[in-house]
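Section: Multi-chain targets

For targets with more than one molecule, the full set of components is provided together so that the structure can be written out for the assembly as a whole rather than chain by chain. Components appear in the order listed by the source. The example entry contains two components.
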Amino acid sequence: MSTPDAFDTVIQLIYVLAASCFVFGLHLMNNPATARRGNQASTVGMIIAVAATLAVIVHGGVISATGWIVLAAGALVGGAAGLYSARTVQMTAMPQLVSLFNAVGGGAAALVAIHDYMQAGSSVSGTTSVFILLDVIIGSVTFSGSIIAAGKLQGVITSAPVTFPGARFINLALGVIALGVGGYIIASPSLIGLVVVLIAALVFGVSMVMPIGGADMPVVISLLNAFTGTAVAMAGFVIGNWALIIAGALVGASGGILTKLMADAMNRSIPNIIVGGFGTGDVAVSGGPGAGAGVRAIQADDAAIQLAYASKVIIVPGYGLAAAQAQHGVAELADLLESRGVDVSYAIHPVAGRMPGHMNVLLAEANVPYPQLKEMDDINPEFPRTDVALVIGANDVTNPAARRAGTAISGMPILDVDQAHSIIVIKRSMGHGYAGIENELYFDPKTSMYFADAKTALAELTSAVKTLVG
Amino acid sequence: MYDPALLVDLAIFVLSLWVGFEVISKVPATLHTPLMSAANSIHGIVLVGAMLIAVTANNAVGYILAFVAAAFAAMNVVGGYVVTGRMLKMFRKRPTVPAPDAQAVAAANGSPEVRQP
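Its structure, encoded as tokens over all components, is:
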């Protein structure tokens, strides 16, 4: 590389400009009306940063022909894979894709540090070693952890918590290895030492996510997102690049905020979720339809009458809606009710689904206007004025037991569904939610249970309402 | 121990974290998935780091690292921006096909928030 000159100054300023585009882009995300422009601003920042880096490479003039080929081939393969997955992914599968992008981002950040370490050899400074280690550890944990998370979300790996005796001991041992060997190589650089740390971190990522159940995924994805950002910022320290430091810090902050919001919405601490072993994942608990005394079952016709003659209906979607791909069905029913003059809105619990905001994206896909999607604190006061609350595939977030002390979900903020005049719950069986406890809502005298798959039930309801109103 | 360049980097990092907290805490829950996806695309900036690996790589291991890093980062950037754009395109204030009873729709859409510019 040449000595610092005007060229380098301009490049640094361009990186600052790119980082400003990222901040501005995120700022525009605070409103659905401007969010698309935010994404465009952020894209412009990225193009600027990549173009500046290309200029640096050409200006430096040290890259070999093989270097160009490798770079172009890698970018082409990765870009094509990214484009294909982004174009074809189903909205219900967004959590998996986000998790996958976390994995590759963290992986790339770790590779940057590894390569830098190889190049520097024994001449690497102590401070640089610290950042390289942090980058390799955080990046590798993110890489393997996110792949496991994506596998669980896709259903390739069981979404139930996987625990075994001694798991905590193994995690502890991995931590000791990573920190011990890491401390050693800060003092005396050794590539083998770094590889040991790398492997320990990769294994740790797997053992960290395996014991976490499916319903805790909103927290896990947010946390891994924060990790990726931090790893990228560490890579920025290693190669001395402001764009990476700023962008990484922004993502770290974003992931951190979402992690906190999700954990609060479950009334659980982040360490408690990471320790895992909670709940049952998506595994259906046995217990056929109608099991359990004191539960009132309802058929499509009766449910349709209630809905068609209501003046205010609140729909409460949960993961079951996504699992059944029933977002279009619910939108069709809502449209039909609205055309009869029924006031329809949706109550979205912060942790409904498998990632923050999952339900909102699904309903947006089904053409539901976003002002109809209400957050928990806004919609709760409306339940007492609601004729029918239609609960679709949501369970624990509607359980009034959360208001009492001494239950598995005590203190968790819930949707006040039980305050509606009547409640219809669409559910396949009396199976428990992830907390593994009975939902007291189902035994409320005002509640009727409609035992069916969400998609089937919504189709039946829609046609029943149509027949009814002719 | 005094390293001005490192201190500047650290100051930038810490201040960027605060800027991030400030900006992102204003994002409404309805946009949390696109937000995370947008953050995902932004950490694709690691592509810059991956590109610089290709400059200094001079042996087989180096080239393999450069290839994998470039592929990972490019997937992150391209996929992240495309899917975020795809998602945000779906967020509408009103249904595309107006419902017959305009009054009911108006009532449902009745939040007094921003109007479409």
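The longest helix of chain B spans residues 60-90.
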